[in-house]
Amino acid sequence: MSRTVLLLNGPNLNLLGTREPEVYGTDTLDDIVAGIRAHATAADVEIEVYQSNIEGELIDRLHEARGNVDGVIFNPGAFTHYSVALRDAVSACELPVVETHLSNVHAREEFRHTSVLTAVCVGVVAGFGADSYRVAFDALMGHLDGQSSSG
Ligand code: CA2
Predict the structure, then answer these.
(1) 66 has which bridge partners?
(2) CB burial class (10 A; 0-12, 13-18, 19+) of residue 11?
(3) Cα of 41 to ligand 1 centre, how many Å?
């Protein structure tokens, strides 16, 4: 049976490719989405895409995903570092969520070293630019394969 994955992006990620290329690369969010779609299609996986700058809209989208997709690739942007509400939504959606970052947050300012979400995610990928999303996708597939083979 084919899978569906939600690619969820948080605040300011709609600006990718327009500023700070030395930190976030030159790809736009559309470029990243196109790359993941191509990668996913080859694996017979459908991708749903959503970006919002609004915390409550990201929470609503996670609620909607519950029971309707197989997993989530989530770049929560700056909400990563302080949104307990998003953490609760990740827990509540009862889906495998891979926290994903373009930059190596641990090599940046100290406030970016903390994530309130990682503990409720199946894993975290950071620091590979746009490739972080592909790595996250592959890791999510491996996680789902492991779940199905163990019953
Ligand atoms: O590295 C990542 O993917 C981040 O989630 C990106 C967030 C940042 O707050 C996190 O600490 C790490 C920021 C996204 C802002 O993206 C921009 C893109 C272009 C221009 C300005 C901001």
Answers:
(1) none
(2) middle
(3) 27
Of the residues 101, 106, 113, 133, which is catalytic?
Answer: 101
**Is 24 a residue of the active site?**
yes
In this prediction the pTM is: 0.96
Q: Which two tokens stand for residue 111?
A: 């406030």
Which is nearest to 5 in space by CA: 100, 119, 102, 82? Answer: 100
- pLDDT tens series, the chain, 151 aa: 599 999 999 999 999 999 888 888 899 999 999 999 999 999 999 999 999 999 999 999 999 999 999 999 999 999 999 999 999 999 999 999 999 999 999 999 999 999 999 999 999 999 999 999 999 999 999 999 998 754 4
Check pocket membership of 24 for ligand 1, CB cut-off 6 A.
yes
